[in-house]
Specification:
Structural class: mainly alpha
Shape: flat
Largest sheet: none
Oligomer: single chain
Order of helices and strands: HHH
Number of strands: 0
Amino acid sequence: MPYPMLMATLAASAEFFGGIMVLFGIFARWGALFILCVMLVAIATVHAKNGFFLHNRGYEYNLALIAMSLAILFAGSGKWSVKQG
């Protein structure tokens, strides 16, 4: 990938701010989308060649985060969130 420092900064920002958005329920669907994109890229570029299991640095944790992100994308953040949507 070109521009590794830019890509690393974007990925770290998407994970950090996406996590904050999901944690506090502020535009949680957007935060879940950010996390989903980063995890898909992580699987495609790093983890896929190692297989599924963790002891080989596999992608099962990434799949769990993708499942969480999809659940929030489809269901929303709930009535206790700061901002619905």
